[in-house]
């Protein structure tokens, strides 16, 4: 099968071509492309082509994997081109950010699809409807552990004026969308930038406003830290560290906004540890920009209390800190904030206080949803257990197994958890086919 030649656009302007040659890929800017229309921070505009041994990390960033890749194979048949270049040709027009990729000569507009999101969120079976849309719209390119799809509001659904990402979970990982919704609410109360979120009427689908579309007609560039490090997505766990996040931020984020971004990054680390988000790998951190002069940390996304589910109960943090992957890391997080992010003790103490207060503010919401959705009750209890221990573990004097967590379940009026069996589970990171393994992202 002949590999396609792809046209690459930035802000709907043609800026280059991508071709496969001798087992590698070559991206070339034509003459006179303005410097601000760079495809990637690692690929500034220049006359010389960019040659990579496979597909360049930036172009791999949004390729469908796992569930989505399987749907494409099923929908197009066993002989479909599901190589990286083939997948990019199918899905590249709908990627996150301002870069769009289509087969040479194809129209960008032809790849856009519209979905009546308001009707889907109001339906009694929103998850099934979203999965059906995924099966029908296999050329919408968003990667991730949850099944995801882009949605554009129909002209008649005027309540939705901008683009959203719709997300739902798997049947064997119950209430994943509500889990993420509540975690993002904690992030919002902690002062982090969080896109607008809306939960479906049945609690099974989460709609998140796309932060790459600020609402003024612009498209923001988006680049995750896995791509910034020049890594293949399968290496997002194995070759990343929290120190990498700090180093890459210092490299690409401008000096004027570096301190503000450092505080946000430190707060996000505290939040991920407090909420037991064991899936905070390199691809779940990103920057946005319109030019190299305004690079900043992207709004937060993909925060989930992962360890409440039996298969992931014993998961450590996704990325090591000072060579360790342990939850009781308050002292190391304070050391990291000073040594790597340049924060003062007062800055970090303030960050810690805001995370703790944010969790407390969302505890009543957990109880409200447990009342609204009886099936969520046991999951909610386990989330509160995890958060309570997490709040202890991010303190500077945290000692594994020695602290007494706050009684969040008692505060919420929920009893002891008994609905999800506590048992030792295999490490999903060691299983590439697992729901949180690299093939599923």
Cα-atom radius of gyration: 22 Å
Please, what is the average pLDDT?
82
The structural domain count equals 2
Care to count the β-strands? 12
Proportion of strand residues: 5-15%
Unreliable sequence segments: 134-161, 421-441
Strand order of the largest sheet: 4-3-2-1-5
What is the number of helical segments per DSSP (H or I, 4+ residues)? 13
CA-CA gap between termini: 26 Å
Judging from the principal axes of the Cα atoms, what is the shape?
globular
Could you say which structural class the secondary elements and strand pairing correspond to? alpha+beta
Query: What string gives the helices and strands in order?
Result: EEEEHHHEHHEEHEEEHHHEEHHHH
> How would you characterize the largest beta sheet?
5 strands, antiparallel
**Helical content (DSSP H or I, runs of 4+):** 25-40%
Give a verbal description of the structure.
The protein is of the alpha+beta class and 441 residues long. The chain has 2 domains: 6-111, no CATH class; 113-430, no CATH class. The protein is built from 13 helices and 12 strands. It has helices at residues 57-60, 66-76, 84-91, 117-122, 126-136, 176-189, 225-228, 242-252, 255-274, 330-339, 345-372, 377-393, 408-412, and strands at 6-10, 13-21, 24-28, 50-52, 99-103, 148-151, 164-168, 197-199, 205-209, 221-224, 286-289, 296-297. The strands form 3 sheets. A 5-stranded antiparallel beta sheet has the order 4-3-2-1-5, covered by helices on one side. A 4-stranded antiparallel beta sheet has the order 6-7-9-8, sandwiched between helices. A hairpin with a 2-residue loop joins β2 (13-21) and β3 (24-28). α6 runs antiparallel to α11 (345-372) and α9 packs across α11 (345-372). The longest helix has 28 residues, at 345-372. The chain starts with 5 loop residues before the first strand and ends in a 29-residue tail after the last helix. Residues 134-161 and 421-441 have low confidence and may be disordered.
